[in-house]
Structure formats: structure tokens, C-alpha cells
Specification:
The chain is mainly alpha-helical. The protein has 8 helices and no strands. The longest helix has 22 residues.
Length: 172
């Protein structure tokens, strides 16, 4: 498939996302859970398309609403913070990414335990944020710990938790 053929669906998806985002305001005012779920999905979709300013806007609104109505420790609120951390990292806003990722990791360890797949994903994400700013010791510590837990508890591979490439990347 050539680049032009691939760009057309992205334009259609982007158009649909833009329209949905414009129509969201006030649509589910009495249903914060629905609003959080929809904005989380739209923010992740914008992120996947590489449209980071719109992703950031949706996710910041989601995070604020989630904290206010569902609580800071709600899994949907934590998801918004985690994806917002990914967006910050993509935009080279490393301090913000590290802060968000650190908060999410701390909450997931406390709420889900250190061996939960979501906790391991958060460890990888924070490790990657550290790696981007050459904080290799902190990155390696997180990657190694996540890898040990993954292999001991979950086996060799669980989506998003595979730490072996992370550890190997630090050796290069």
C-alpha cells in the first residue's frame, strides 16, 4: 500500500474525530462516566494518528473531569493520565511525561499491586520516559524489575508488558 492510499483513511478518521469532539460539549453533562470513556477513546485515537495537540486537549479534559467526578484513583482517570503521559513524551515534554507516568505508576502499585499487567505497563512507560532523557540507571531499574516480575508471574509475554527489548535497548 502506498503512502497516499494510507492517508485517505486517516483523513476520514480525523474528520470523524474532529466532528465528535465538537459535539461532545454538554452532550453527556449528567453522565461523566460516558464523557470520560468517550474522551479517553478520542484522545487515544488522536494520539495514534499523531495529532498530539488534539489528543492533549481531549485527555486533559478527561483527566480533569475524571479526577473531579470519578476520583484520581479510578482506572479510567489513571488511563487518561497514562495516555496523556504518552502524548507528552511524543511532544518531547519529558518532565511532564515523567510526572504523569510516576503518578500513574504509584497509584497502580498501590491499587493493583506490583504484579498487575497495568502496573508493569506503567513501569515500562516511566522507564521509557527516563531513557529519553538519558536517566539510564532509573530506566534500567524499572525495566529490570518489570522484566523479573513479568517472567516470574506472567510468563514470557503479555501485551504491553514485554520488558526484554527495553532492557536490551539500554545495552546499545
Amino acid at each position: 500500500m502506498d503512502a497516499n492510499a494510507r492517508a485517505v483513511p486517516n483523513i476520514a478518521v480525523r474528520t470523524l474525530l474532529d466532528r465528535a469532539a465538537q459535539r461532545m460539549d454538554g452532550k453527556f453533562a449528567n453522565q461523566p462516566e460516558v464523557t470520560v470513556a468517550l474522551r479517553n477513546t478520542m484522545g487515544a485515537a488522536y494520539r495514534d494518528l499523531g495529532v498530539y495537540p488534539e489528543a492533549q486537549q481531549q485527555l486533559e479534559r478527561t483527566l480533569e473531569l475524571g479526577r473531579r467526578t470519578l476520583g484520581a484513583d479510578d482506572p479510567r482517570t489513571l488511563t487518561a493520565a497514562s495516555v496523556l503521559g504518552q502524548v507528552a513524551l511524543q511532544q518531547h515534554r519529558y518532565a511532564e511525561a515523567q510526572a504523569l507516568d510516576g503518578q500513574v505508576l504509584e497509584a497502580r502499585r498501590r491499587l493493583l499491586g506490583p504484579e498487575n499487567p497495568d502496573t508493569l505497563r506503567s513501569m515500562n512507560q516511566l522507564g521509557f520516559a527516563y531513557q529519553q532523557v538519558r536517566k539510564y540507571e532509573q530506566a534500567e531499574a524499572l525495566y529490570s524489575q518489570a522484566l523479573e516480575i513479568q517472567q516470574r508471574v506472567l510468563g514470557t509475554y503479555v501485551s504491553g508488558t514485554n520488558c526484554h527489548p527495553c532492557v536490551e535497548s539500554l545495552k546499545n
